[in-house]
Write a structure and sequence with these properties.
6-stranded mixed β-sheet, 20 helices
Amino acid sequence: MTTVLQVDDLRVETVGDAPRTLVDGVSLRVDRGESLGVVGESGSGKSLTVLAALGLLPVGTRVAGGRIVVDDHVLVDVEAGRWASDRELRALRGRTAAMVFQDPMSSLDPLRAVGAQVAAAVRVHDRGLGRRAARERAVELLTSVGVRDAAERAGTRPHQWSGGMRQRAMIAMAIAHDPLLLIADEPTTALDVTVQAQVMDLLAEVRERTGSALVLITHDLGLVAENSDRLAVMHHGRVVETGETRAVLAAPAEEYTQRLMAAVPAEQERTAPAVRVGEPDALAADDIVVEYRVAGRREPVRAVDGVTLRIAAGETVAVVGESGCGKSSLAKAVLGIQPATSGRVALGGTPVRAALAERSALQRERAQIVFQDPWSALDPRLTVHEIVAEPLRIRRAYDTATVARLLDDVGLDESFARRLPAQLSGGQRQRVGIARALALRPRLLVLDEPVSALDVSIQAQVLELLDALQREHGLGYLFISHDLGVVRSIADRVVVMQHGRVVEEAPTAQIFADPQHPFTRQLLDAVPRLTGPRRGAGR
């Protein structure tokens, strides 16, 4: 079988007087038609390894040793003094090897229509193709990755697309020339389970049609189980375990792999709910409607259509559904960020105005949010102490002891107070975000995909922290997530939304054991499981 990617004894290090080794002697191979899964925590070197293969290492890093071959083209051979030129790399990228990045928003030009960007990817290796033909091909590609009304949507800009839809556009660009090697770096982190399944099915179809190879970088072990033939586990810049995926997951030999497996949310519902009887509901939302005005359309788009929701003190209610189903719009209406068009919201038993600006300071404090991306949610110029103290200063309730207590509550000692966000891991940054959200003693926390960007081991720590804080403070949680494994482990009740409406609501155990609505069954069927492979692996 023809080898598409061969990495031998790769070493990547920082540039400077005291270089630091980031990738230490990594060797990987993937053949045509094969899928290789690469897993490991943030900082393990998995992304740097594949970025080196395409000549895309970040500034300040370099290949210091080893050899990289892509489809018989020697791109790097440090011992022989061979380095591919920029021209060779440009000819390779897109046609022979293509990459799907984790964050589609930062990969797309915010000023250009999405369709134009896909068409540009088509023309880069086919200069003879006219603009009209390229646009038509772009629409075909967008349609093939599940973009509805692709011809109409192609003319809109990235900010008008959901995160999941933006990732579909990135995949359309990557497969434009049927490359021999597809590198997917956390390609489904921002996607709900049904779209995730569609994307992985699509990548499997491309592999079958073209015989291409896939390198799948992810922290989702279920995704790897269902979509990879072989598995490489990385830790501290080294491959610590490799082998056939099913064999490794069934009986991991290395302690680190065993720890990763143990951190995967168990397939069991939450026990001993923390609901506090007799206290006012953390949230009471009645008949919420949220509409958006869209340029060029006479009628508004109804994102939330008559949703009623209750969350008791100490209760966790998860809202799940596909991208665009209205779950984030519902959360924004609860917080007042996007005022509800109609309906009523009460927080901690107190009715509040629809718009955040019209709520009193006390009413605004009753609900806080923890965002999905802890990096972009924190001001990089402020220390941890300053970030947590900011809401207290605004309310003239600041004192150093309160900040210290909040950091201690989320498991960060006083040494973290002087650090900047860049000096923290992803899990530590998320803990800071939670501490800031708790500063004003809210009744309700809106948790918008709070662990989706984290590795499984860090994810488990944050979920344990959230559970402990809820039991201590009686917080109500509105938990928005596409990860049904996480939902199963933390939620007391599950609300399933589709097209802006609630189609099913029930206790978590009932939803997973006996779903009533076809859409709920569709969501559950799409959940990746460690018992894979199912899509495109082992073919």
